[in-house]
Write a structure and sequence with these properties.
single chain, 321 residues, alpha/beta, Rossmann fold, 17% strand, globular
Length: 321
């Protein structure tokens, strides 16, 4: 089918574009090449996709509804079967410094994509949400049925709001929606500001790494290939009658910050110097996904534990990154 992918030049988006092209789909990719990190990195991410005659790139800002919609139409977006909306302003700490920007991109932008789906007659919508919506949930593992009315960062609040907007469009217009709560995605092309990538580069340069808290914070690190499997499952799930569901996509295991540094140290062959800092506002103590719903309804079956994923990431970093 034909799929519109926003955030197509980003970490997850560029991998998804390649996955869809490899299975024979046509893809219209939307990206603004925002300067949150080097746009040249994002252009390299799309080098393979741009060689395909089944890929069309639209350089547009999702906040600018008319320009984006016109670009998508010009690129052949009419007749698309699905939209996968991954474009967002990401990051917990930056959202505290720039809450208005996060609201504009993540809320206004999401409304613009939902409106695009409505006006183009696209019936299937997959929304990239985040495990941050759970806040400091004392109950683990996190289940989709848990209360998510206590976000602790503007970023988390915008992601939860995006889910609610999707539900509204399901109710009003019969859109079929899957909201996917991603749990700390990593792998080749990971954003350079994220911990695994940033730590690895600093360690290779012989620079100290900064750890916040006491090292006991835990994350459910999820390899990008497993996330792609979940997105494919969500695309299949949204076929047929209109529906709305939320799914966790994680590895269903946790890794402490200290253990993560140990795995990176082993894979890189470097012993890091560590600078300790107090916990940061907005950071949650742990994330831990209950993926039983995604297993049951999407056929989701994560295959890459962090002990295998970190060496894969390091191999990419040394050879291509």
């Amino acid at each position: 089918m034909k799929v519109i992918v926003t955030g197509a030049a980003g970490f997850i988006g560029s991998h998804l574009v390649e996955r869809l092209l490899s299975r024979g789909d046509e893809v219209v990719g939307v990206d603004s090449f925002d300067s949150f990190y080097d746009p040249a990195i994002k252009r390299r991410n799309l080098a393979g996709a741009l060689a395909s005659d089944r890929f069309r790139l639209v350089e547009a800002d999702i906040r600018e509804a008319d320009g984006m919609a016109g670009g998508v139409r010009d690129a052949g977006g009419e007749g698309a079967g699905a939209i996968v909306h991954l474009a967002a302003r990401a990051g917990v700490r930056p959202s505290i410094a720039q809450p208005l920007l996060y609201s504009q991109v993540n809320l206004d932008g999401t409304v613009n994509l939902l409106e695009l789906a409505r006006t183009l007659g696209v019936t299937r919508f997959v929304f990239g949400s985040s495990s941050s919506v759970y806040g400091n949930n004392p109950r683990v593992p996190f289940a989709e049925s848990d209360a998510v009315d206590g976000p602790i960062s503007p970023y988390a609040a915008t992601k939860r709001s995006g889910e609610l907007l999707c539900h509204t469009y399901r109710h009003l217009y019969g859109l079929s929606v899957a909201c996917l709560r991603f749990f700390t995605v990593y792998g080749p092309r990971q954003r350079p500001d994220l911990a695994i990538h940033a730590f690895a580069r600093r360690m290779l340069r012989g620079e100290p790494i900064t750890l916040f808290g006491d090292g006991s914070s835990e994350r459910d690190y999820t390899y990008v290939d497993d996330i792609l499997d979940g997105i494919e499952g969500a695309l299949a799930f949204t076929a047929g009658e209109p529906k709305f569901e939320i799914f966790n996509l994680g590895e269903s295991q946790t890794t402490t910050l200290l253990r993560l540094v140990e795995l990176l140290s082993d894979a890189l062959g470097v012993q890091p110097a560590v600078e300790w800092q107090p916990p940061q506002p907005g950071d949650v103590e742990r994330t831990f996904a209950d993926v039983s719903k995604a297993r049951r309804m999407l056929g989701y079956a994560p295959r890459v534990p962090v002990e295998d994923g970190i060496p894969r990431f390091v191999h990419w970093l040394r050879t291509e990154g």
